[in-house]
Amino acid sequence: MAEPRKSGEAVDATPNVTEVDVVDAGSESASVAAIEAPVERGEPILQVRNLVKHFPLTQGILFKRQVGAVKAVDGISFDLYQGETLGIVGESGCGKSTVAKLLMMLETATAGEVFFKGQDITKLSGRALKAVRRNIQMVFQDPYTSLNPRMTVGDIIGETFDIHPDSAPKGERRRKVQELLDVVGLNPEYINRYPHQFSGGQRQRIGIARGLALNPEIIICDEPVSALDVSVQAQVINLMEKLQDEFNLSYIFIAHDLSIVRHISDRVGVMYLGKMAEIGTDTQIYDHPTHPYTQALLSAVPVPDPDAREGRERIILSGDVPSPANPPSGCRFRTRCWKAQDRCATDVPLLAIPERFKGSDSQAAHESACHFAEEKDVVHAA
Amino acid sequence: MLLEVRDLQVEFHTREGVARAVNGVTYSVAAGETLAVLGESGSGKSVTAQAIMGILDSPPGRISGGEVLFKGRDLLRLKEDQRRRIRGAEMAMIFQDALSSLNPVLTVGNQLGEMFIVHRGMNRGRARSEAVGLMDRVRIPAAKERVDDYPHQFSGGMRQRIMIAMALALEPDLIIADEPTTALDVTVQAQVMDLLAELRRELDMGLILITHDLGVVADVADRIAVMYAGRIVESAPVHDIYRAPAHPYTRGLLESIPRLDQKGRELYAIKGLPPNLLRIPPGCAFNPRCPMAQDICRTEVPPLFDAGEGRRSACFFWKETRDG
Fold it and tell me: CA-CA distance, A176 to A185, in Å (whole number)?
């Protein structure tokens, strides 16, 4: 079903649409062509720029007026490269799940852009949006509530083909679903079973099969293993790594378990109160953190090694995370930070390579949003 | 010994049949000791705790055998009113989900004070000031102003502190903490575990910490008991178990968790799923998932072998597992 294009959109189709550089909002078919073009490994496939999501707080019943806003995501930027896994960590309420919803276009961004292969997907609609959606899929946290209990596994996975009918001819859909079940390590004969007949780990495999059905390029995983038992977690993580190699997927892996994120990620971003505090490769973040929040977060994670009990330094933060409806001025972490100075209350620290590490080839030279960034290893025992 | 659980059996009568949630659990806790009970969901770790506390839902649950010796008395033989006097005063429990364990329509001061009114016969005024003292003790800022607040007005970490305060109110000798920090963020978890460990030291209490988090266990426990399908499969001092596990299940668990301090390769995954408690496999319950299983494991239930140095393992091949 082709929707009429809005009259406001300019029709200046860029000739070289395969370029990853930002393409102007062209005609719908040009957009679709750009979206379907391949991206080289190591090139950015998704570029997020100053993404903002404010949820309005209203008062009154008849005459609603806005009295404030929950600043769930307040200007974050990052790139996702083709074939890599970007981990996003942070405590509850830091906005990491809202980021996932924004990238999926399940929420409308208040401001900012998300470029998928050069196309700003926040401005797309109709056929082009559908083409993007097909390429960015999601695996949800709770395998118990994210599968419809009244649908069979075949219907749950097959529904994606009904929504995108050109992805598989009608007669082949059942066979494709069975193939997908096989790929995620489930018996293809289970196609007529209902979700309640499966264990938690198996259900998460069904969720992954559904995410894979349309052959997407990006899968956003929001806490995909946190509801699973330890022995089952490893099975699902290994499966996800295998699938990434097999289908050349890029993952955004959102989780609060820092050990799992380190295991699966190539790069890691640390979020605090709607902002990105620090971002870098897994070695840079875990072995050479420079932002005090990252250091506190890492030092709080218990390491499964009783011999390391005494040797590790623990940074115990005082107080709780402030409300995102009324975040602190300047640096958002300053109210709990042991390094905070007057400057932190007035100047918002930018996410950039700190001045003192610029040009250095040390692992500490990565983006960190702190005025007093300083390297400190908190993970390894002294 | 402060608490000795001997051969405890608990079953649940369901429509599909009898689920044997606890099949002969034996463990003990000394005064001042922290015992971690480790296990996945359905392993029976929480049901054991409920049986010790005497708060098992029955029906459908039923204690079908065993003894729970607390300071030498078998709790299972006591009458309900005698048990009620022990609960709270001599042993107390901290639950996982503070929000649903606290009464939403009563102030926290009211709920904390109730302990003193019921057990110590204090009047409301005294109970209230005791409540403020308790909130100070678990380091809730501005306790005096917040004593009349309701549970929803506190953050998750603060609510869990209130749960701890309630458990500590009458200075019991034994605390059972059932996944006390599972619902909390890591930075808050660190605060709460620190507080719990400090208060335990101060009051020289025994602590049973029920958890599935191998990191938390390594941080605070003296000894560990690992449960699988309603049985203890291994128990040992904390350092030994991490260095050289003597049961294939423990070993599989330790190898299946990713590490924060090093980038590992592919994770070891224990194959298969935990058993359905209605149909526990014959022999060793772990045998269908075990890489070392032999014929004997499929027919005979392994006893808890004495593996020396205070260690026990319910595996016929504990020596091979420990040394290999």
Answer: 14
Report the number of distinct structural domains present in chain A: 2
A40 touches chain B (CB under 8 A): no
Chain A: give the shortest CA distance to residue B286, in Å: 13
Residue B275: alpha-carbon gap to chain centroid = 21
For the segment A38-51, what is each residue's pLDDT rounded down to a tens digit?
A: 777 778 999 999 99
pLDDT (0 to 100) of residue A54: 94
Whether B265 has its CB under 8 Å from any CB of chain A: the answer is no
Q: Is B29 helix (H, G, I), strand (E, B) or coil?
A: strand
CATH of the domain at A235: 3.40.50.300
Which among B40, B218, B256 has CB closest to A303? B218
Identify the domain containing residue A198 by its residue range: 43-57+68-264
Are both A160 and A91 inside the same structural domain?
A: yes
Output the pLDDT for position A199: 84
- Chain B residues within 8 A of A321 when measuring between CB atoms: 185
Q: Based on the domain organization, do A197 and A253 belong to the same domain?
A: yes
DSSP string spanning B123-173?
-HHHHHHHHHHHHHHTT-TTHHHHTT--GGGS-HHHHHHHHHHHHHTT--S
Helices assigned H by DSSP within chain B: 45-53, 80-86, 98-101, 108-120, 124-137, 143-146, 156-168, 186-203, 214-220, 238-243, 248-256, 295-299, 318-323
CA atoms of A358 and A365, how far apart (whole Å)? 6
Same domain, A233 and A278: no
Mean pLDDT of B35-57: 91
The residue extents of the domains of chain B are: 3-95+173-323
As for the ipTM of the complex, it is: 0.83
CATH class of B3-95+173-323: alpha beta
- A375 in any annotated domain: no
By CA distance, what is B218's nearest residue in A?
A: A306
Helix boundaries (H) for A184-276: 200-212, 230-247, 258-264
B38 vs A: CB within 8 A: no
What's the pTM?
0.85
